[in-house]
Design brief:
By secondary structure, this protein is mainly alpha-helical. 79% of the residues lie in helices and 0% in strands.
Length: 244
């Protein structure tokens, strides 16, 4: 765990040593505010809650998190610094978890900086802050799922653009599997258990349950499983591509 902590600190510091971190945070905060107050019709709804804020998170993460994740391993492989990292007395799993944790912490910082929205809704009314807190936790857990996918894809290529596109496509498939249009397509010919299985793989299905204020163990287990599986594959890919 000491190795994980060292790598996490190194990677997190690297984010803020380049303009990437600040650009990401500004874009995330700007889009969050614009989508909440304009497209989300925050004032027109007349309700003291942040539903219009959180409802856009799955779509925001679809593009912004692959942009963060694409550099995790692709840049290391392209520059050859991954070999230096892996020659240190650090197990592969520690390197994978350390990089993932640093990126996840970076995303958490960006999410925390949206606190003015929470203050605003409390100033305007009397929201259920328990629901808002649950939604923040759910958003962070879902972000971890997106990030694990992006990290895994990044480990498989040296090209950051390819890593971004493939991660976005894979995340899109996870996202859309719960959309009614996709469900209706399968309901016409597929058995019920297949339709339900596809629906259960959707980030939207699980996140929408959480933002209603109910953190169901099944939703937490789902996102935890996505993170665990993709990080396991991530570590396997790093081992397989060692020296390439």
């Amino acid at each position: 765990m000491h190795s994980v902590w060292v790598i996490t600190k190194r990677e997190l510091a690297a984010y803020f040593s380049t303009p990437l971190a600040y650009v990401f945070i500004v874009i995330f905060l700007g889009l969050s505010g614009a989508l909440t107050f304009f497209m989300g019709a925050f004032f027109e709804r007349g309700q003291a809650d942040l539903q219009s804020f959180f409802s856009f998170h799955p779509w925001l993460y679809l593009f912004l998190i692959p942009a963060v994740a694409m550099r995790l391993w692709a840049e290391e492989r392209k520059s050859g610094t991954n070999e230096l990292l892996l020659t240190l007395p650090v197990p592969t799993w520690a390197a994978v978890i350390g990089k993932f944790t640093a990126a996840w912490a970076f995303i958490a910082i960006a999410l925390i900086l949206t606190f003015p929205l929470w203050i605003t809704v409390n100033w305007l009314g009397e929201p259920d802050n328990g629901v808002i807190l649950a939604a923040y936790i759910g958003s962070l857990i879902m972000a971890g799922g997106y990030l694990a996918i992006g990290s895994c894809v990044s480990a498989a290529t040296k090209n950051q653009v390819i890593a971004f596109i493939v991660a976005a496509v894979v995340s899109f498939l996870f996202l859309m599997s719960g959309v009614e249009l996709v469900q209706s397509f399968f309901q016409g010919w597929a058995p019920l258990f297949v339709t339900e299985a596809i629906k259960s793989m959707s980030f939207l299905t699980h996140f929408n349950d959480i933002i209603r204020g109910v953190i169901d163990l099944r939703d937490v287990v789902f996102f935890g499983s996505v993170i665990g599986v993709f990080l396991y594959v991530n570590a396997a890919i790093v081992d397989l591509t060692r020296g390439s």
